[in-house]
Amino acid sequence: MTKPIPEGYHTLTTYLAVDDAEGAIDYYTRAFGAKELGRMPAPGGKIGHAELQIGDSHLMLADTFPGQSTRPPKELGGTSASLFLYVEDVDAVVQQAIDAGATVTMEVADQFWGDRFGTVTDPFGHVWSVATHIEDVPEEEMAERAKKAMAGMASS
Q: Which SUPFAM superfamilies does this one have (predicted)?
């Protein structure tokens, strides 16, 4: 019997619109250790659909085409979403992403919620939040830490 959610997939999978899908596949392989699962060519040397795996998650992407509802960040002048990636060593992965061509959006640092966390923007305009969970923070302490952090943001 066919499974309604294919083997190896999660309920929610990210699908990115990119300029230069082939370049993006190369970048995500170098930056985040992605493994290419497959691709479908499209006219003009473009990629109509590709699937990658990063850790235990799938990432779908394609070049943009006229009439599509999704647009790449560079065409929009920014993005309304980011990708969140948990890894074993955030410092190493962020450095790897930088070495592959990302720019730092937020330096890696320990955060009040218990993650060591930073963000980068990839060469295609997508923002990646990368984290390693370093501490389980009790709910009451989380509320206090959040209050202090937000107070610090208001004064800056």
A: Glyoxalase/Bleomycin resistance protein/Dihydroxybiphenyl dioxygenase
pLDDT digit string (tens) for 20-51?
999 999 999 999 999 999 999 999 999 999 99
- Mapping DSSP to helix (H, G, I), strand (E, B) and coil, where does residue 76 land? helix
* Token pair listed for 1: 């019997």
* Residue 75, CB-side half-sphere exposure with 13 Å CA sphere: 13
Q: Please tell me the pTM assigned to this model.
A: 0.89
Is 122 in contact with 104 (CB distance < 8 Å)?
no
d(CA 105, CA 28): 17
Return d(Cα 50, Cα 52) in angstroms, integer.
Answer: 7
Q: What is the C-alpha separation between 46 and 31, in angstroms, rounded?
A: 22
- Is residue 29 within 8 A of residue 8, CB to CB? The reply is no
Tokens of 89: 């060593």
Residues in a beta bridge with 127: 82, 121
